[in-house]
Structure formats: C-alpha cells, structure tokens
Amino acid sequence: MMLIKRIDHIQLAAPVGSEDTARSFYRDVLSLEEVEKPESLKKNGGVWFSNGSVHIHIGVEQPFVPAKKAHPAFEVDDLEALASHIRNKGISVTTDDQLPGANRFYVSDPFGNRLEFLEWLEK
C-alpha cells in the first residue's frame, strides 16, 4: 500500500522575470530564506525559499494566471504579530472567521496568488 509521508514543497506560479519581486515578498516580507536551486534547474527560472520544514518554490510560466482560490495554508505561532508586520509593509490582510477553532487571514502575493495564514486556538 502506498503511503504519502508529507508535503515536500509547495510550488506557486509567477510571471517570467519576476524573481526579484518574489524575493521582495517571500524573503523580505515573510522572512523566508532563499535556497539555491540545483544547477540543472536554474535555466527554468524561478526562485526557492525555505523556513525549516516549509519549502516554497516560485516557478515562472507564460502565460501566467494566479491561483485566486487554490492556496497553501501556513500555520503560525503569533497570527496577530504576523498580520501587523504584513500590514506595516503596506500589504492588505483579509481576516476570516469562518473556520471553527482557528483565527486566520488571507494575503495575495505580488502575483495575485492567495496565501492563508492561520493559528489554531487549541491543539
């Protein structure tokens, strides 16, 4: 029987040539560390980020269409502090109270991809 162990990484799409914009958001706003791509994949463009076991790959594609409904959700320790930090960077935060047992908000990355951040109230 096949058993899926874990998610290795999440890939989000971005327009061709947008690597610096991705760095400005994922590295400078979300404080993720940029990870060097393997030499064999650098020719494809894009940029990778990591924070512990969280790995996000930004892949470029043409034509580009952002994911407005589909999204990754990231569990955080201090949701309010993150929301305040993101707002201070001039980025809009959309709060949502529809998930029982959790506080959460949504943010769009610079390319229009939807990202969810949540904090469970009890574990």
Summarize the structure.
This protein is of the alpha/beta class and 123 residues long.
Could you describe the largest sheet, including whether it forms a barrel? 4 strands, mixed
Instruction: Kindly name the structural category.
Output: alpha/beta
Uncertain stretches of 5 or more adjacent residues:
none
Number of helices: 3
Proportion of strand residues: 25-35%
Mean pLDDT: 95
Q: How would you spell out the order of helices and strands?
A: EHEHEEEHEEE
Counted beta strands:
8
How large, in whole angstroms, is the Cα Rg?
15 Å
Name the shape in a single word.
globular
Distance between the termini: 30 Å
Helical fraction equals: 10-25%
The side-by-side strand order for the widest beta sheet comes to 1-4-3-2
Give a written overview of the molecule.
Helices cover 19% and strands 33% of the residues. The protein is α/β, with parallel strands linked by helices. Strands 1-4-3-2 form a 4-stranded mixed β-sheet, covered by helices on one side. A hairpin with a 5-residue loop joins strand 7 and strand 8 (114-120).
